[in-house]
Amino acid sequence: MKDNIENNTPIHICLFADERSIHTRRWVLGLREMGHRVDLITLMKDNNDIGGISLGAGNKLEYFLRIGKLKKMVASINPDIFHSHHASSFGFLASFVSHPRKVLSVWGYDVIAFPFKNVIYKAIIKRALSHASYITATSRYLKDAVLSLNNRLSNIEVIPFGVDLKQFKYVERTPGDLVTIGIAKSLRPKYGIDILIRAFHKLHLKYDNLRLKIAGKGDSGPEYKKLVADLNLNELVEFTGFIEHNRLPAFLADIDIFAMPSNCLEAFGVAALEASAAGLPVVAAAVGGVPEVVNDGQTGFLVKMGVVDELAAAIEKLIVSFELRGKMGRAGREFVENNYRWENNLLAMDNLYRRVISGVNQPVAGQT
């Protein structure tokens, strides 16, 4: 473990995160591509193995029983940086590990909803936050959520989870007879897919050239399919099932409007950015960090959460104007290019690691 490091010297990083998450895999692979040595400790292994070391903890009781094993692993790896992702699980367990340079990345639910379930959960999050040398958040909204839990924290940096523009290429669309609306989200109530189906039904009564494509899987799938059947939309709505991240660009290339009517406080909204990168206008609920990634009236439209008529009205503006769809799609691509390039996010994380190693920033207030 180094006490100082040159700007071009590879860093030894130990990530403690969920190997099953695409976000974890992107960080691991991206940092490795930069030349860093990246070890991954995870609670459970994933079929998409990227070399993670498993603690074999499948439930909350096992989490606590593996703390000793985690401590030994980190001591054996002896990294320059010990970086945990998600405060309510990995970040909390990391708080018991003795390491001089601990970084914690909050993801959303862990600081937006989890702490407010009960006093014990809030204590868990406060411990995780107070034992980190530095905290990262994907949006200003999420940073504010962290500060609302502990306003004494000072070393917090916004590092977005951006878009790989080599993967999500801009698609120039041509006018056609059909207009396809799409969404790619888990089939769960918090993502408002039922609201989108009802808005689509309302629009279908007025326009006969519409199609809806829903990508994702989840427990609410049967409920949404029944709703589609009850509204006599079976011929117009396609449930594609789960789409792997590397196949998402092809899905986006096949639609004209991207919808994100979330019923929850989205921490960031990377799905909206990926759609914008592909040249799509985005219609999204103005919740959480979403207004940071959708410029209302420029790259898409922001609507009130849970209001079918407002969602339908915003989508209708895009249905009737191919020119507006193109204008917003081009603006969205430019917005992502200027603000949310994945390679810039990797560089920002690299820079943060080097500052933490060099001791530029003192530990956050409250660390013990």
Structure write-up:
This protein is of the alpha/beta class and 368 residues long. It folds into 2 domains: 12-162 and 342-358, Rossmann fold, CATH 3.40.50.2000; 179-339, Glycogen Phosphorylase B (Rossmann fold, 3-Layer(aba) Sandwich). It has 14 helices and 13 strands. The protein has helices at 22-33, 60-65, 67-77, 87-94, 109-112, 119-130, 140-149, 193-204, 221-230, 248-253, 270-277, 308-319, 322-339, 342-358, and strands spanning 12-16, 37-42, 53-54, 81-85, 102-105, 134-137, 156-158, 179-184, 210-215, 237-241, 257-260, 282-285, 300-303. The strands form 2 sheets. It has a 7-stranded parallel β-sheet with strand order 3-2-1-4-5-6-7, sandwiched between helices. The protein has a 6-stranded parallel β-sheet with strand order 10-9-8-11-12-13, with helices on both faces. Helix 4 links the parallel strand 4 (81-85) and strand 5. Helix 8 (193-204) packs across helix 12. It is globular, with a radius of gyration of 22 Å. The two termini are 21 Å apart. Mean pLDDT is 93; it is low at 362-368.
Which key features would you list for this structure?
Rossmann fold, 13 strands, six-stranded parallel sheet, seven-stranded parallel sheet
CATH topology-level fold name of the largest domain: Rossmann fold
Query: Radius of gyration from the CA trace?
Result: 22 Å
Q: What summary fits the major beta sheet? A: 7 strands, parallel
The CATH superfamily of the largest domain is: Glycogen Phosphorylase B
Shape: globular
Number of helical stretches of at least 4 residues? 14
Mean pLDDT: 93
Q: Tell me the number of structural domains.
A: 2
| CATH secondary-structure class of the largest domain | Alpha Beta
- The N- to C-terminal Cα distance equals 21 Å
Total strand segments: 13
Low-confidence segments, given as residue ranges, are 362-368
Annotated CATH architecture of the largest domain: 3-Layer(aba) Sandwich
Strand order, biggest sheet?
Answer: 3-2-1-4-5-6-7
Which structural class should the secondary elements be placed in?
alpha/beta
SSE pattern, N- to C-terminal: EHEEHHEHEHHEHEEHEHEHEHEEHHH
Strand composition percent = 15-25%
Helix content: 25-40%
